[in-house]
C-alpha cells in the first residue's frame, strides 16, 4: 500500500534533482543572491523622499466648534540612506503630529496659529540622527473656531445652465434653501449667503436633481455641507391675450376712446406658467402728449408693461382709431 507513495517521491526527486534541473536551481540561487546584493547596494545609497505625516488638533473643548481645521497632513522631504527611508515609509516610525488646542487658540480672534518651528520640532524629534529634514509643506498651520456663534443664510446658485432649443430654465430650487453657518462674530457679520460649487450644464431638456457641495470659505463651517439642487426646464410656447387699451397724460375733462378697446398681445412663455398670466399684468397705453404733438386720425399704441415671466411680447397692431371726447359737467 505504500509503494505508490514511494513511487511518487521517487518521481519528484528525479524531476527536482535531475542534471538539467540542478543547473536551473543553481542559476536561480545565484540570480536571487545577486538580486539581494544589488538591493543592499541600492538601499545603501543616499536618496531624497517625500513622506506624509498626519496632523491632529487635540483636547478641543466640547463647547467649541472648529470652523477651519489644521491641514490634515504635512508633507516632508527627508534625505537619508535608502534603508532608513524604507523604514520611515513602511515601519510606522513617524507618528501623527499633535497640537493642543489651548496652547495655540486666541479666543479674542477665534483663531489659532501653530508656528512652523513647532511643526519642525515635532518632526525632528521623530527622525533618526542621520536624516536631514529638507522641506515641510504647507508652510502655514492655522485653525478657526467659535463658541457656537451661528446664523441661517440662503444658498445661491453659482455656475451656468443653458436649456436646449425651444426650452428655457423655469427655476432652480435648493433643499434645504438655507444652511447654518458657524464662524467668529466678525466673519459671521460679513456672510449674507453661501454659494454652491460652480455647476455647469448645457442643452438641458429634462428636470434634474443632484447633490452639490457648498463652496468652502476658510474659517466658516456650513451645516449641512451639501444641498440638493433641482433644475426645472420648461417648453417655450407662443400665446396670446387680449389687453384693454388705456390712455395716459390726459388733460382734465377729456376722455379718449379707442376702436377697438382691446388689443391682442403675443408673447413667449413657459407652458407651465401660462395659466398664471392675466390681462391686468400687461399695460397697453395711448400717450396723449405724443398724440397732441403728432396729430393724426389714428393713435399709436405702446406696450409699456409685461410680466417678468414672458418674453418677446408684441402687439398685433400698433395703430387704432380713436375719439377724443370732452366731458360736460
Amino acid at each position: 500500500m505504500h509503494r505508490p507513495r514511494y513511487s511518487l517521491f521517487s518521481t519528484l526527486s528525479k524531476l527536482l534533482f535531475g542534471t538539467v534541473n540542478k543547473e536551473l536551481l543553481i542559476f536561480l540561487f545565484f540570480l536571487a543572491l545577486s538580486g539581494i546584493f544589488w538591493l543592499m547596494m541600492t538601499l545603501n545609497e543616499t536618496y531624497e523622499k517625500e513622506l506624509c505625516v498626519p496632523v491632529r488638533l487635540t483636547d478641543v473643548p466640547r463647547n467649541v466648534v472648529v470652523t477651519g481645521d489644521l491641514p490634515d497632513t504635512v508633507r516632508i522631504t527627508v534625505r537619508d540612506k535608502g534603508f532608513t527611508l524604507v523604514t520611515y515609509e513602511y515601519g510606522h516610525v513617524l507618528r501623527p503630529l499633535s497640537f493642543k488646542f489651548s496652547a495655540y487658540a486666541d479666543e479674542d480672534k477665534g483663531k489659532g496659529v501653530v508656528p512652523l518651528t513647532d511643526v519642525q520640532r515635532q518632526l525632528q524629534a521623530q527622525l533618526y540622527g542621520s536624516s536631514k529634514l529638507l522641506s515641510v509643506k504647507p508652510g502655514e498651520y492655522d485653525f478657526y473656531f467659535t463658541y457656537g456663534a451661528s446664523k441661517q443664510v440662503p444658498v445661491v446658485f453659482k455656475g451656468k445652465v443653458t436649456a436646449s432649443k425651444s426650452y428655457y430654465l423655469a427655476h432652480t430650487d435648493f433643499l434645504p434653501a438655507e444652511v447654518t453657518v458657524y464662524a467668529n462674530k466678525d466673519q459671521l457679520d460679513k456672510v449674507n449667503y453661501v454659494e454652491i460649487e460652480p455647476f455647469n450644464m448645457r442643452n438641458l431638456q429634462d428636470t434634474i436633481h443632484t447633490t452639490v457641495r457648498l463652496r468652502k470659505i476658510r474659517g466658516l463651517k456650513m451645516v449641512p455641507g451639501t444641498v440638493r439642487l433641482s433644475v426645472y426646464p420648461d417648453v417655450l410656447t407662443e400665446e396670446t391675450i387680449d389687453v384693454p387699451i388705456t390712455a395716459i397724460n390726459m388733460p382734465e375733462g377729456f376722455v379718449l376712446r379707442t376702436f377697438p378697446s382691446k388689443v391682442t398681445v403675443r408673447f413667449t412663455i413657459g407652458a407651465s406658467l401660462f395659466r398664471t398670466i392675466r390681462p391686468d399684468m400687461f399695460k397697453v397705453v395711448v400717450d396723449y402728449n405724443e398724440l397732441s404733438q403728432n396729430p393724426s386720425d389714428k393713435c399709436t399704441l405702446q406696450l409699456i408693461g409685461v410680466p417678468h415671466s414672458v418674453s418677446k411680447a408684441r402687439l398685433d397692431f400698433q395703430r387704432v382709431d380713436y375719439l377724443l371726447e370732452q366731458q360736460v359737467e
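The domain at 28-146 is CATH 2.170.120 (RNA Polymerase Alpha Subunit; Chain A, domain 2). Residues 19-43 form the longest helix (25 residues).
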